[in-house]
Amino acid sequence: MAKLWGGRFQKSTDKKVDDFNSSIRFDKRMYKQDIRGSIAHATMLGKTGIIPKSDADKIVEGLYGILSDIENGKVEFLIDAEDIHMNIEKLLTDRIGEAGKRLHTGRSRNDQVALDLRMYLLDETNTLRLMLLHLLDVLLSLAKEHTKTIMPGYTHLQKAQPVTFALHLMAYFEMFRRDLSRLSDWRKRCDLMPLGAGALAGTTYLLDRGFVAEQLGFSGITRNSLDSVSDRDFAIELAGVISLIMVHLSRFSEELILWSSHEFSFVEMDDAFSTGSSIMPQKKNPDVAELIRGKTGRVIGDLSGLMVMMKGLPLAYNKDMQEDKEQIFDALDTVMLCLPVFCDMLATMTVKKDNMLRGSKGGFTNATDAADYLVKKGMPFRQAHEVIGNLVFYAIKENKALDELTLDEFKNFCDMFDEDIYTAISMQTCVNERKVPGGPAEDAVNAEIAEAEAFLGSVSEN
Ligand code: ARG
Q1: Which residues are designated catalytic?
Q2: For 362-441, where are the alpha helices, taking DSSP H only?
Q3: Does the global pTM surpass 0.85?
Q4: Any residues with Cβ below 6 Å from ligand 1, and which?
């Protein structure tokens, strides 16, 4: 096949090079954006008189025809035509002849690919945003059910202080809320239209860049022609945003895996979200959570791959940059594969409240509260810490929990202890006295939930 750029060449491209160089296999997914971009460019060329208006009309009509043929599965893309940009341009000239050859006036594939990729990512992340909102919704509904569900809180994976499952869920709400805000922040920088940068140095045609931006729904145009074609920050940043979403999903997955174990037994995944073993009949494995944790590694790999790919590139466009697509597409595909299945897994799991409460008890999770009890009776905290430390050491030897010690035993360590120590160190008191904003007490969590609900209501609308 004759190349669109064949004029300077005496020989045809080696078959191996055609295959090697071609990106159509993975960039064909940007066909819609490529066509929309070309329609806007052609319309602008016609409007400004850079090409005859009648040719612009033919181009636009031809492009709509190609779009509908692709959508109806009637188009076969050619490896020889290298990428989506040249495939579509070739289809156009095959169909409408002479006029089609005017489409690429004042444009290069370098600014074209920058445009297509920005548009593709902006389009796809609309769905990603909805998926994040859905996850926030699932977390919030679950949190509402569990404001009284006491569970152990951990540091160093050692039992620390009792919290509620609602507080734990709302921690994830905060993480994913930040992800949502990072995504809208990213959007501002991606939402700029690069056409007009040409190959690297702009163009001699006085293009109406603002018009093209407006046609395509961009909020502005990129400023510098060299930067416009050599910038892939928007792909790297998005891979960063996605990586962090995955890290959050992965941390939660890790907890769900631990909690599903016999040793914790805090939750049980629904049968529909678990798998069995081919040899051990008793097994019920949390494969979904494990796979999400595993896929996080590949997404972080996509992010590192993109950064390493860019770090040594001189300005402006280099063919290395064709490698951006598979990585950012993989990151997007993966996060959008994980989010819905994670949401459904979460919404259908059984929460074993009794085990959570039992888990919160052993391990002296109320030791801080016992110290606070003495502080409230006037003892300095550091001294109270020491007294309770000694008491815990004694209780470990006696194989008792703090609330299983007799009042006499308490009094042996400090005569400030009274009968009210038992209520002061019950799990319910430990949780409900933590009323500080952001804490686990029911009222504090309910305030958090109310704010979260208002937040979701306000972001869902726009
Ligand atoms: N397929 C190329 C890419 O993905 C398009 C840009 C090619 N430009 C060039 N001058 N070879 O980056």
Answers
A1: 156, 277
A2: 367-376, 381-398, 407-413, 421-424, 427-432
A3: yes
A4: 23, 27, 83, 109-110, 113, 317, 319, 321-322
